[in-house]
Amino acid sequence: MQDDTTVISLAGVRKRYGGVVALAETDFTLATGARLALLGGSGSGKSTLLHLVMGLIAPDIGTVRVLGEEMTPASMRSLRHRIGYVIQEGGLFPHLTARRNVAIMSEHLGWERDREKKRIEELRELVGLTRDTLDRYPSELSGGQRQRVGLMRALLLDPPLLLLDEPLGALDAVVRRRLQKELRGIIVSLGKSVLLVTHDAAEAAALADEIVVMAEGKIVQRGTIAELTRSPKTPFVAELLGDGGAPTTEQA
Ligand code: ADP
Ligand code: MG
Prior knowledge:
The protein is an alpha/beta fold. The protein contains 10 helices and 10 strands. The strands form 2 sheets. The chain has a 6-stranded mixed beta sheet with strand order 6-7-8-3-9-10, with helices on both faces. Strands 2-1-4-5 form a 4-stranded antiparallel beta sheet, covered by helices on one side.
């Protein structure tokens, strides 16, 4: 099951909160280098799956393996250094400048200043922010800028795996479409394995090569956007993709 070609595997994993089944017993794998979107409505268990992969929560039953290791309290810390995690609007600390938000892990790990400076400069160019932007506080940045800073932070340690939770969710439609293209360019150029969460079929299609549709804590269907559009397994999948899932000329 788990080898060099698999970056994430969930085997018989379930998570409940009281009476709510956030994730029903689930098997899931992500191949190394793949870019996959979890697509579903609010409360369908997308973030729960991501949190399990990040080791932020533990499963009630089943096994989570990431980058060849089982996620356990003992392996969690070192694994998290190899997973880049971006949450909505970047999830930045409001009392730290953008630069210090990006540098949280390098400060924690005691990097030399030169190494840190060089890495931040590389990432700043990659995401296309100006230098002065990094000296501002999150409240002084636009939603798109905050998202880029969040991406810089997630990439700081050059993790092989990126988890993106509604990365563009808070942005208005025009900015969102532009950033979708840019973000896709960045993740493709870096060649990382990517698991992202979105409720927006167009975004899933723009950023990922494969889609897993979720509803009520279950995986409903998995396939490429073309496969899901051509043969949706349930009316729900058809409806979800009907809302602009297939790439349209408007998007291009
Ligand atoms: P999604 O990301 O698809 O919107 P989530 O994975 O966040 O959905 O949530 C799935 C279900 O689990 C929802 O019903 C949600 O209310 C519930 N849930 C998630 N996290 C918690 C929590 N920490 N405590 C209680 N219920 C939770
Ligand atoms: Mg969520």
